[in-house]
Amino acid sequence: EQIDSDVNCYLNIDTVFSSKASPILLSLSRNELKPNLNSSNPDSNQTENERSKFEQIDSDVNCYLNIDTVFSSKASPILLSLSRNELKPNLNSSNPDSNQTENERSKFERIKSMPRFIYKTEDNLSQDLGVQILFTLFNQLFKCSQNVFKINDKPTTKNPYINTYSILPITSQYGYIEMKESTTEYSNIDWSKWSKEIDKSSVKNLVNSAVGGAVACHVLGVRDRHHGNILLNNKHEFIPIDFGFLWGKTPRIDAPSFNIAPEMRKELQSLGVWKDYVERCVRSWEVLREKGREIVECCKFLFRGLGVGEEGIVEWIEGAGLMLKYEGELEALGKEIAVWVETAPESWGNWLKQKTHQFKKYV
């Protein structure tokens, strides 16, 4: 019987060996219905609940691990996917299998399962996982603060948010990352065409996801924010990626933490939503600052044992991140955040960072 399932194939980690390189024993498996052994016709006497019970079957040939792409970045991460074989139906028959010859039955087509995932080395993805957990926490804080984000003095259900994705660290040197499909690098967007191809819903998605991502990355001191480290999906939502630099630590050349392209700012201005973008950045930052002490404790817990000193975490968040050590009025601190957001697109640091990243891509 043919079983339709989005996750019909599985990649299993059976063993992590104890040698220096920590090699991993992997296997592939698939879901299959458990038969009712008390019946000569198993399916006929099974209830709907019994039919929903699956067992995982190890398979030598039915499931495949595919290498789809080897990316060109320094660590050469690999895009992987799982697939399974499925019989091609005889479309000329109302009962495809009954009229197929043995030769026709042997013809399979490869069906890919989603999501795909990236195998990445030379990175401790436990740090990236910690960032994703914090992003999820920030999303909940934004969601519970509807009164802060108002349109014409009325609460809105469309609050800022951060696009997250799944991460599975294996060791301190490698792991797996969920592949976000239908995305393009922020640096590849033609903003002059973009504004002519979108609707109001897409503009709201862009503004709210860009606000959430920018503020969250600033609070955690995420740096190396060149435009290749931001993706845009087909819903026009921002997806921040790559969190190798945290707590204000920077590469030799870096852009401001609130970093968007001047071309995007120009388009948001032409659409009349730039001021809303800036104001929402300030309001989002204030929401997180209100829970600043709790955020500090969460960060200390999540990054314990990852070679990150608690002092560096506390120093960043209490300093530039959320300014917890400053006694000034909240309004004055908010104005400073607004200045950072306003000046970042045209800053010298932003221009230099993007140019050096473009140069490195072609060298």
Q: Layout of helices and strands, plus pairs?
A:
Elements lengths: L8 E8 L7 E10 L14 H4 L2 E5 L4 E8 L7 E10 L14 H4 L2 E14 L3 H19 L6 E2 L2 E2 L11 E3 L4 E5 L4 E3 L5 H4 L5 H20 L10 E4 L4 E3 L21 H9 L3 H17 L1 H11 L7 H12 L8 H14 L4 H15 L1
Antiparallel strand pairs: 1-2, 2-3, 4-5, 5-6, 6-10, 7-8, 9-10, 11-12, 12-13
Helix pairs in contact: 5-7, 7-10, 8-9
The largest sheet has its strands arranged as 4-5-6-10-9
Q: Helix-strand pattern, N to C?
A: EEHEEEHEHEEEEEHHEEHHHHHH
Structural class: alpha+beta
Q: Count helical runs.
A: 11
Biggest sheet statistics:
5 strands, antiparallel
- Based on CA atoms alone, the radius of gyration comes out at 25 Å
Q: Report helical residue fraction.
A: 25-40%
Report the portion of residues in β strands.
15-25%
The geometry reads as: globular
Write a compact overview of the structure shown.
With 363 residues, the chain is α+β, with helices and mostly antiparallel strands. Helix content is 36%, strand content 21%. Helix 5 packs across helix 7 (274-290), helix 7 (274-290) crosses helix 10 (330-343) and helix 8 (292-302) packs antiparallel against helix 9 (310-321).
Molecular structure report:
The chain has 11 helices and 13 strands. With 363 residues, it is of the alpha+beta class. The strands form 4 sheets. The protein has a 5-stranded antiparallel sheet, with helices on one face. A hairpin with a 7-residue loop joins strand 1 (9-16) and strand 2. It is globular and about 60 Å long. The N and C termini lie far apart (53 Å).
